[in-house]
Design goal:
heterodimer, A: Rossmann fold, Rossmann fold, five-stranded parallel sheet, four-stranded parallel sheet, 12 helices, about 40% helix, globular, B: alpha/beta, 8 strands
Chain lengths: ~325, ~190
């Protein structure tokens, strides 16, 4: 395992399978009376969140605490960042406090990579979502959830629907699921597909109905209005009618297919309330699995001998 | 952790200390001793420590079950996250933890491992067990006790006491994980761990 988790693209199939297998063992911890392991005792994990987040931050916090690490939460709001402090100075502060791992969410794509490769900090860096680039732990928990329901992902068809352009979840999932052997189809209006999607290891389509029949899983994405400074579709109603997972489309899915959503959901927009609450929706399970997957990532990055002390070779990565 | 599928290299100076029949006899005796010590099989759970403790635990439980005519729950307890040497090596792959459905609360837990050496593995296992529940008592069964304890730990049931030098290596192979059942002692560069 590498020293940082910055992108799904960095993970080989063996890396990904190791994380998912480790997470599978750690998931059983949730059923125990004492939900804690002593493994990261004395290590410090900093949650550095420059963007709002509910489930990712709580999930990382729970994961680190269950491994007995000390957790420092840092939100940009109410911190020196709002007084104009740069990422570099914030990083130097964290380094001086002795952070072993930094979990960073940032509005700018590439901020975690900058933090990991700049030499500002010696800690492991975990990307918890950067701009419209990547969100690798979300992809890992989605892959984990898919594996629990579908078994091996080789040849499985996963359809990702919605605002692909602004979605770091879609990019990370497309890369990771392809690495794991799944066939990924992205469905979105032409305006919400990124430039260069033809170079991704996926199929792209504008027709949701055509893709549903043969899908083993459908992942609905939120329309990220906060990142939209332009009119990407005529109206919310039209988007919902053409790209929303409503009851009629849900009925056309194969019987074994599952419905996923990285959250937060806009009920009635990309997904109907009935579908979101149905037995085949695994949206709540995704949150539970997220803690196990993030525990696995923190354990594999920090649990062994390499955590906190980069060798020359690793520092070069 | 041990590599899967151990092979015994015939070219190094090694000798078989226990063969398949010896191992079978030792496990049968341990099963009887467990029953004798606990005056029956009530509330006994046999937990193996991965990797090779797990098949041993299942074999002992099966023998106890056939003697008593009742079901003896058996499972496995992974101790990786509780090891005291985690920071000395890259992160290890986790093994399976499989606690029988009744839980360990109030039970007599018999921990099973293949080789008892420094005692550090058992220390970790006791910590791991404490997080799973509160057994009434814990006993330890090992196939081979090779000495050189570093911690105040001893086994309750021993298949074979094997006096060794720290430079020797004791290798247990089991049919469930490797090709065949055997305990082999060989000269090695430095101690096993």
């Amino acid at each position: 395992m590498r020293r940082h988790l910055l992108s799904s693209a960095d993970l080989t199939r063996d890396d990904a399978v190791e994380i998912l297998d480790t997470a599978a063992e750690l998931l059983s911890l949730a059923d125990r009376p004492i939900k804690k392991l002593p493994t990261l005792r004395g290590r410090t994990v900093v949650n550095l969140f420059f963007e709002d987040s509910t489930r990712t931050r709580i999930s990382f916090e729970a994961a680190a605490k269950r491994l007995s690490a000390d957790v420092i939460n840092f939100a940009a709001k109410g911190s020196s960042v709002s007084k104009g402090e740069s990422l570099k100075d914030t990083a130097l502060t964290l380094e001086a406090m002795g952070a072993d791992a930094v979990v960073i969410r940032h509005g700018s794509s590439g901020a975690p990579h900058r933090l990991a490769t700049s030499g500002w900090v010696r800690s492991c860096v975990v990307n918890a979502g950067d701009g419209t680039h990547e969100h690798p732990t979300q992809a890992l928990l989605d892959a984990f959830t898919l594996r629990r329901h579908l078994g091996d992902l080789e040849g499985r068809r996963v359809t990702i629907v919605g605002d692909v352009l602004h979605s770091r979840v879609a990019r990370s999932n497309a890369l990771l699921l392809s690495t794991l052997g799944a066939e990924v189809t992205l469905v979105a209006p032409p305006t919400l597909l990124p430039v260069g999607v033809s170079t991704w290891p996926v199929q792209a389509s504008h027709d949701l109905d055509g893709a549903l029949d043969k899908s083993d899983a459908v992942m609905m994405l939120r329309v990220q209005s906060e990142r939209m400074n332009d009119a990407f579709f005529p109206s919310a109603r039209e988007y919902s009618r053409r790209y929303g997972l409503d009851d009629r489309r849900f009925a056309r899915l194969p019987d074994h297919a599952i419905v996923m959503h990285p959250g937060p959901m806009n009920r009635g927009m990309e997904i109907s309330a009935t579908v979101a609450d149905s037995a085949r929706s695994v949206i709540v399970e995704q949150v539970t699995n997220g803690v196990a997957v993030r525990m696995a990532v923190l354990y594999l990055l920090l649990g062994g001998s390499t955590g906190g002390q980069p060798t020359a070779e690793e520092a070069a990565l | 952790m041990s590599p899967a599928g151990r092979g015994v290299d015939a070219t190094t100076a090694s000798r078989i200390v226990l063969d398949a029949t010896d191992i079978s006899r030792a496990l049968t005796r341990i099963a009887h001793e467990i029953l004798e010590r606990n005056k029956g099989s009530d509330e006994i759970i046999v937990l193996g420590i991965p990797r090779r403790g797990v098949p041993l635990a299942h074999r002992i439980a099966a023998t106890m079950a056939s003697v008593e005519g009742t079901d003896i729950p058996a499972g496995s307890l992974d101790i990786t996250m509780y090891r005291d040497d985690l920071r000395l090596r890259p992160a290890r792959t986790l093994e399976r933890t499989d606690i029988p459905a009744r839980g360990v609360d109030g039970a007599i837990v018999v921990l099973v491992d293949d080789v008892l050496f420094s005692g550090r593995t058992i220390r970790a296992a006791l910590d791991a067990l404490g997080d799973v529940g509160r057994p009434r008592g814990v006993q330890l069964a090992v196939l081979v006790d090779r000495g050189h304890r570093r911690l105040p730990i001893r086994a309750d049931f021993v298949g074979k006491n094997l006096p060794t030098s720290l430079l020797e290596r004791v290798t247990v192979t089991l049919a469930e994980v490797d090709d065949s059942d055997a305990v082999v002692i060989s000269a090695a560069e430095g101690a096993g761990w």
